[in-house]
Design a protein that fits this description.
Helices cover about 20% and strands about 25% of the residues. The chain is an alpha/beta fold. It has a domain at about 75-155: Barwin-like endoglucanases, CATH 2.40.40. The chain has a six-stranded mixed β-barrel with strand order 1-5-2-4-3-6. It starts with a helix and ends with a strand. Keywords: Signal. This is D-galactarate dehydratase. It comes from Maritimibacter fusiformis.
Length: about 160
Amino acid sequence: MKRSLALVLLLSACSLTGTAPDLAPPEGMTRPMPRPDAGGAVVPRGAATADAFDTTTPEERAAAVAAPEPAGEARLGRTVAALGSPANPGFWLETPLVTQAGPGRVVAIANGKSVQLELRPIDGPAGAGSRISLAALRLLEVGLTGLHELEVFAK
């Protein structure tokens, strides 16, 4: 009995770590800076709806759904995409199908609608999933939730 009690006390003492570690970054550490070319509209404070998060203009939306040029595109493949960060404005797809950022287009398999957007690389195998912007999902009219199969083209 005494051994069991001593063992319990000894093991519980192992979980005590003393003071909490300092989680602040070290002095002089470089912090991430916003992209200088981001330039787009900033999401308003307190945004809670898709309309509030979508800061694209009617002109930008019209350009994104304009018919693509018949030549000059390369099919990259299919991906399954979910909604990316609604705080990142614009028309974009983060996908492992590309290794560098560039213009492209996606077609929703469910309804055939397409959107021109920026293709942004992310780590992962080519078959891994992708993240798509709120503005692009709204124009594709496939819903904001769930997983959406997309055909991806690079310009």
